[in-house]
C-alpha cells in the first residue's frame, strides 16, 4: 500500500530525525559501543580490538566519505519506513471513524461523494487559513470529492476559543452556520476574545448569546474531545492534516495542485 511522505515534516519529527542521524554519525566516527559490541563466540571486543576497528572505520571514511552519507541515508530510509508503517496501522484502526462523518462535522462538497478527505484544522493556523480557497476550488472542480472538516485546537487558548465558537455555530444553524462562523473567524485578523467572538457571530448572522451558551456546553466539549481523540489516534502532529479515504495522509501546508495530485494517486490505488 503506497504512502505519501510528509510535505513538510513537523518540527518535532524533524528534530527526532536529526538526533537519530547525529547518533549514527557518532557511532561510525567513534566506533563500537564498549558495552554492546560482540566478537562472535569470543565475547566482547577488547580495548585494542575496538581501537583497531575505530581506526579502520576512520581510514575508510577518509578514503570514501560516501560511507557516512550512505549510512545516514539508510537510517533515514529506515526511520521513514517505520513512520509509514505506524501511520498505516493507525489509519487502518481508525478507518471507520475517518470514513463516516460525525453529526457535528461540516462537509465541503457533495455529501455523498465517493472520495472522502478528512481535514484536521486549527482556526488559528495560518496554513489552514491559506488553504481554504484551494479547498473551495477543489470541491468545485471535482464533484466526486467531499471534505469533512474536523476542527481541533492545538495552538493554545485562542485556538480553543475559536474552535468552540465554530462547533457551537453548528448547533445553532447546522452546516451553513458552521461555515459562516468558520470563515468569519479564519478571515479575521484580530486576536480573538469573548467580545470579538460575539461580534463575529453577529456579523455571521448568528445569535451571540446562544453561541456563548453553547460554547460552554457539553455538546461542544464532546465534539472537540472526539476530534482530538481521533487526531491523536492517527498520530497527528500539526495542522492542517489531510487524510484521503482513510488510507493516505498528507500533513502540512499543501496547494491545489498537490491536493489534486494526491487524489489522482489515491484513485489509481
Automatic annotation (TrEMBL):
Record InterPro entries: DSBA-like_thioredoxin_dom, ScsC_N, Thioredoxin-like_sf, Thioredoxin_domain
Signal peptide range: 1-39
Domain Thioredoxin: 75-268
GO molecular function, a single term: oxidoreductase activity
Keyword Amino-acid biosynthesis on entry: no
Keywords recorded for this protein, A-Z: Disulfide bond, Oxidoreductase, Redox-active center, Signal
Pfam entry (one): ScsC_N
Protein name: Putative oxidoreductase
Source species: Gluconacetobacter diazotrophicus (strain ATCC 49037 / DSM 5601 / CCUG 37298 / CIP 103539 / LMG 7603 / PAl5)
Amino acid at each position: 500500500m503506497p504512502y505519501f511522505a510528509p510535505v513538510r515534516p513537523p518540527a518535532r519529527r524533524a528534530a527526532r530525525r536529526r538526533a537519530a542521524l547525529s547518533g549514527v554519525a557518532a557511532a561510525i566516527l567513534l566506533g563500537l559501543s564498549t558495552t554492546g559490541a560482540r566478537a562472535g563466540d569470543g565475547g566482547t571486543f577488547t580495548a585494542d580490538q575496538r581501537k583497531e576497528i575505530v581506526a579502520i572505520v576512520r581510514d575508510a571514511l577518509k578514503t570514501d566519505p560516501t560511507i557516512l552519507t550512505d549510512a545516514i541515508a539508510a537510517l533515514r530510509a529506515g526511520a521513514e519506513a517505520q513512520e509509514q508503517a505506524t501511520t498505516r496501522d493507525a489509519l487502518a484502526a481508525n478507518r471507520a471513524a475517518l470514513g463516516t462523518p460525525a453529526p457535528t462535522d461540516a462537509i465541503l462538497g457533495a455529501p455523498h461523494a465517493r472520495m472522502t478527505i478528512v481535514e484536521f484544522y486549527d482556526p488559528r493556523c495560518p496554513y489552514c487559513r491559506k488553504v481554504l480557497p484551494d479547498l473551495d476550488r477543489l470541491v468545485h472542480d471535482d464533484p466526486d470529492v467531499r471534505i469533512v472538516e474536523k476542527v481541533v485546537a492545538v495552538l493554545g487558548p485562542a485556538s480553543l476559543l475559536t474552535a468552540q465558537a465554530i462547533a457551537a455555530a453548528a448547533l445553532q444553524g447546522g452546516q451553513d452556520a458552521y461555515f459562516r462562523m468558520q470563515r468569519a473567524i479564519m478571515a479575521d485578523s484580530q486576536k480573538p476574545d469573548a467580545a470579538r467572538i460575539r461580534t463575529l457571530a453577529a456579523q455571521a448572522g448568528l445569535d451571540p448569546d446562544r453561541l456563548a451558551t453553547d460554547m460552554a456546553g457539553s455538546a461542544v466539549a464532546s465534539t472537540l474531545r472526539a476530534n482530538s481523540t481521533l487526531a491523536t489516534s492517527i498520530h497527528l502532529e500539526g495542522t492542517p492534516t489531510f487524510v484521503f479515504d482513510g488510507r493516505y495522509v498528507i500533513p502540512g501546508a499543501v496547494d491545489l495542485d498537490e491536493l489534486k495530485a494526491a487524489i489522482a494517486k489515491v484513485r489509481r490505488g
